Amino acid sequence: MRGVRMATRPKTEASVESAANEAEATTPAPAAKAVKAPTKAALAKAAKAAAAEAEGSSTEAPVAPKPARKRAAAKPKVKAGDDAAAADAGAHDDADSDDDDEEGAKRAAPAVPLPSGALVLSLVDDEDEVPVYSSAITGATADPVKDYLKQIGKVALLNAAEEVELAMRIEAGLFAEDKMAQMTDAEKKTALGRELQWVAKDGARAKSHLLGANLRLVVSLAKRYTGRGMQFLDLIQEGNLGLIRAVEKFDYTKGFKFSTYATWWIRQAITRAMADQARTIRIPVHMVEVINKLARVQRQMLQDLGREPTPEELSRELDMTPEKVVEVQKYGREPISLHTPLGEDGDSEFGDLIEDTEAVVPADAVGFTMLQKQLESLLDSLSEREAGVIRMRFGLGDGMPKTLDQIGDTFGVTRERIRQIESKTMAKLRHPSRSQSLRDYLE
């Protein structure tokens, strides 16, 4: 299907009729009087003149030459007896001349200027207008960024008039989609419904064209945010989402270039994506803005003072307390992976240089095992009740110390009786005959 320009009339009946009348006026009428019969020399001379004229017209204009047609002025004079034949031949010549002149008038007819406010649709084939992106790129390389730039570079840039035309078609398509959403299935099958469907599809094609022609703008803006925690292609993809938003909200009646309007949406999409995805630990967007503001002020004061500013100096510039400045600086620190390679060879990692305070030293593990065995031997020298009270009171069995009430409920006695048993048993354990074996572990 070929698009059309609405409210335009490139060919009208009036222009065709005026061109035909003009062609008839320029064509001479056939001879009315009988004249002498032409000689062979005259006929040869007339044929040479016609051939020369046709050859000259073909060399002047860079178009394909047409077959030389007979002209009324080049016709030989005939006798009175041949008036009917001459008139018949002249009529055929006039008809041929009229047809050729009419075609020339149609080709030369000036286009009617587009009225203001008219909806402009495409004059080219839909397949030629919409940028085509193929997943199979000829001469693809191992660099995906290079392949992407090569692919989007095939789409020509747009001028201001083309942007306005596409924006008008997009607006019409969105309006048609809104109208179709309110129609029933039966109404969509009517002539109006089919027309709205066509307008909606044309708006989608215009949207794709405007997007494809501005993908290079996204790349140029994404380059400014590289090295901040996101891959370059990820930045481009997030910027493309902002470009789609800009295409849908662009108002061509304001008179601004589309790139001017789309830049803000692209930057917003990229910065929001960086705030959500660039950090290992996600920080809310409003806090990211505070961190970025603190970093800008800190860099500026470093240049002015020639040293790192103190939290008090930063707090005066940012209108916040010094404690808040320290807290924001702590939030802005980026965590480092323990597997970060170190050195030129990368044979060691950052985690190799950090002490694990919770790691168990082998000597301490052996000493702890021996202490457990020594305690078990001491508890075996006590009665079953005394050993049970000590184990539950200090959590020697499960690591969970119990209260006097809990121990009393277990043995069926009061908490006071459990306290007395505990005191008596601890006095036995403190006796030098038993405690001497445990003193070595206290040194």
Automatic annotation (TrEMBL):
PROSITE patterns in alphabetical order: SIGMA70_1, SIGMA70_2
Region named Disordered: 1-111
Biased composition (Basic residues): 67-78
Stored InterPro entries: RNA_pol_sigma-70_dom, RNA_pol_sigma70, RNA_pol_sigma70_r1_2, RNA_pol_sigma70_r2, RNA_pol_sigma70_r3, RNA_pol_sigma70_r4, RNA_pol_sigma_r2, RNA_pol_sigma_r3/r4-like
Database matches in SUPFAM superfamilies: Sigma2 domain of RNA polymerase sigma factors, Sigma3 and sigma4 domains of RNA polymerase sigma factors
Cell compartments where the protein resides: Cytoplasm
Domain RNA polymerase sigma-70 span(s) in chain numbering: 234-247, 403-429
A Gene Ontology biological process term: DNA-templated transcription initiation
Keyword Transcription regulation recorded: yes
Gene Ontology CC entries for this record: cytoplasm
Motif (Interaction with polymerase core subunit RpoC): 234-237
GO molecular function: DNA binding; sigma factor activity
Pfam families per record: Sigma70_r1_2 (PF00140), Sigma70_r2 (PF04542), Sigma70_r3 (PF04539), Sigma70_r4 (PF04545)
Chain positions covered by the region annotation Sigma-70 factor domain-3: 289-365
DNA-binding region residue numbers: 404-423
Ranges of Low complexity composition bias in the record: 13-63
HAMAP family recorded: Sigma70_RpoD_SigA (MF_00963)
Purpose of the protein: Sigma factors are initiation factors that promote the attachment of RNA polymerase to specific initiation sites and are then released. This sigma factor is the primary sigma factor during exponential growth.
Assembly and binders: Interacts transiently with the RNA polymerase catalytic core.
Family designation: Belongs to the sigma-70 factor family. RpoD/SigA subfamily.
NCBIfam families: PRK05901.1-3 (NF004561), RpoD_Cterm (TIGR02393), sigma70-ECF (TIGR02937)
Protein name: RNA polymerase sigma factor SigA
The encoding gene: sigA
